[in-house]
């Protein structure tokens, strides 16, 4: 297996596990999410709760999973004027009924933050949890689970950070990050023009051999069977040992290990971000 390769991921998702800084675009998306939910006022709280009322609220995990969403939760609370305290970090294993976050401040502000905060950490923790399940399936092999660009529009930064929290790795952040020649590029371009570092999607062994000849840094095996992937690994080891092999195409928890055992270096899984069940949290005012 080749060594010392990682997709560039030039944007900030790689940094979110170590930094509380969000991009301006993602921060604006959170502002818009709050505006969508609050509108001109929280009319129920305004009717029933004194504006001066203060208190605390606790967010609990309602099932086991993996947590993600520290920076998103911090941003929501900063924008709504709520103080936040975490009992877990990104990547932490969650237990049923575990206390995760404590909020404090004006009750009106806590209730304005509630739904957007829960939606975000629920979605992001769902991604982290599902990623961890895929990573567990390839345990004992050298294969890495990587994400794709099949993300929710405008939430890619947070979703790719959630993949990291679950133990996965980031593929390119966007079209600007890395040259990746896919099926629709083949029709128009002369592949011999390719220079430097690039990846090529291959659909059969003829295209795989072409990728080797062109000096591709990565060959993406598109919808190869596990048996075909194993043969591709054998060819790579014999002909182009420096080339990374990425398996891709409708990967599931039932099928992913067979590809890892076949010897591919990475497996890209769109389902990490496009087919996620949100993790369930609840918020209760103390």
Keywords for this entry:
single chain, 286 residues, Aldehyde Oxidoreductase, domain 3, six-stranded parallel β-sheet, four-stranded antiparallel β-sheet, elongated
3D architecture notes:
It is a single chain. Helix 1 crosses helix 4 (107-137). The mean pLDDT is 93. The chain has helices spanning 24-38, 43-48, 70-80, 107-137, 156-165, 183-186, 205-214, 226-239, 256-262, 271-274, and strands spanning 54-61, 65-66, 83-86, 93-94, 99-106, 144-146, 179-181, 198-202, 218-222, 244-248, 266-268, 281-285. It has ten helices and twelve strands. The N and C termini lie far apart (54 Å). The radius of gyration is 22 Å and the shape is elongated. A six-stranded parallel beta sheet has the order 6-11-10-9-8-7. Helix 7 (205-214) links the parallel strand 8 and strand 9. It has 286 residues and is an alpha/beta fold. It is 39% helix and 19% strand. It has two domains: 12-127 and 277-285, Quinolinate phosphoribosyl transferase, N-terminal domain (Aldehyde Oxidoreductase, domain 3); 135-186 and 194-274, TIM Barrel.
In terms of topology, how is this protein built?
Elements: H1 24-38, H2 43-48, E1 54-61, E2 65-66, H3 70-80, E3 83-86, E4 93-94, E5 99-106, H4 107-137, E6 144-146, H5 156-165, E7 179-181, H6 183-186, E8 198-202, H7 205-214, E9 218-222, H8 226-239, E10 244-248, H9 256-262, E11 266-268, H10 271-274, E12 281-285
Parallel strand pairs: 6-11, 7-8, 8-9, 9-10, 10-11
Antiparallel strand pairs: 1-5, 1-12, 2-4, 3-5
Helix pairs in contact: 1-3, 1-4, 3-4, 4-5, 8-9
């Amino acid at each position: 297996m080749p060594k010392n390769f990682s997709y560039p991921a030039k944007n900030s998702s790689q940094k979110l596990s170590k930094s509380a800084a969000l991009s301006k675009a993602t921060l604006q998306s959170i502002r818009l999410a709050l505006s969508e939910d609050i509108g001109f006022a929280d009319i129920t709280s305004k009717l029933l709760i004194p504006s001066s009322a203060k208190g605390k609220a606790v967010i609990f995990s309602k099932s086991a999973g993996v947590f993600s969403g520290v920076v998103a939760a911090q941003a929501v609370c900063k924008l709504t004027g709520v103080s936040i305290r975490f009992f877990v970090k990104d990547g932490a294993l969650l237990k049923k009924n575990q206390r995760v976050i404590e909020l404090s401040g004006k009750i009106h502000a806590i209730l304005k933050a509630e739904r957007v905060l829960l939606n975000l950490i629920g979605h992001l923790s769902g991604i982290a949890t599902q990623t961890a399940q895929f990573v567990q399936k390839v345990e004992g092999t050298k294969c890495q689970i990587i994400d794709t660009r099949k993300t929710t529009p405008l939430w890619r930064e947070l979703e790719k950070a959630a993949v990291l929290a679950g133990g996965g790795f980031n593929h390119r952040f966007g079209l600007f990050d890395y040259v990746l020649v896919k099926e629709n590029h083949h029709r128009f371009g002369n592949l011999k023009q390719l220079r430097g570092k690039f990846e090529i999607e291959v659909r059969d062994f003829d295209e795989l051999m072409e990728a080797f000849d062109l000096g591709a840094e990565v060959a993406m095996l598109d919808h190869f069977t596990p048996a075909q992937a194993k043969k591709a690994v054998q060819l790579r080891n014999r002909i182009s040992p420096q080339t990374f092999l990425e398996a891709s195409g409708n990967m599931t928890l039932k099928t992913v290990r067979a590809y890892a055992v076949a010897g591919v270096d990475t497996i890209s899984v769109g389902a990490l971000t496009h087919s996620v069940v949100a993790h369930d949290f609840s918020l209760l005012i103390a």
